Amino acid sequence: MFDLLGEKKCNRHKTTSRCNGQILAISNLLSAYAMDGAAHDNSTEFHEDMKKRVKRVVHVLFSGLGGHGAVMFGMLDAGFYSDADHLVLLTGVEPPLQDYVDRLERRNIEWRYVRKQPGRAYASFYKALRRAIFETDPDLVFVHGLATIPSVVWN
Question: What CATH number matches the domain at 55-153, 3.40.50.80, 3.40.50.1110, 3.40.50.300, 3.40.250.10?
Answer without folding.
Answer: 3.40.50.80
